[in-house]
Fold this protein.
Amino acid sequence: MTESKQTNENRIGGLFLIIGTLVLLTTIYFEYRIGWIGNSRTDNETIEFLISNWENLKSIWAWQMCSHFIFIVGYLLLLKTAILVMRILWSILVVCSLLVVVAFGLTLGSYYPALEIYNSEPVIFETIRGGIGYLYQFGRFGLLVFAVAFLLETLNKNGKIPKILGSSLFIFIILVLIIGYALGVSMKIIGAAFFLLPLAIGYFYFKNVDK
């Protein structure tokens, strides 16, 4: 592969990470706006909320699924030209995003029919929700993998992210998580700060400036 082609694929891969992150953060904002995150509910209240807000949630979750498709394209582009360690990490992230896509696909396809018969057959919905939950949690493992990728790109002398900027951003995110948790803020809200990592990696790959 020529150097110019490698550079172009890295830049396009970085751009896909930026777009995917912005789409995902936008959907998280709308989840907060309609009250899906940031509020405590009983199980019965959660069911009622899902039924009454299904159309809004369906649109939001469809866009979240699209954001992970965008991530997958970005990962595959970056994987092609990466060193071995980063290639492994990008591959793991592809699998994690695929699991999230499957989880959202099952949610969009099966949640509402199961909710409609919840009063008579609650076990159907609970079984579906449990299975989807496992897929989603395994997929969310990708955030930890992304943290490793971010640190490698920051600390590696040939990485894309400047050491001071990368270290400062990582510390800032950790502080946000700690302070938010101490103040009792929902992890779904403060956890959004973690998505600054793919945004930063995407930006520096798109700039394609070496240290």
The two ends are 22 Å apart (CA to CA). The chain has a mean pLDDT of 90.
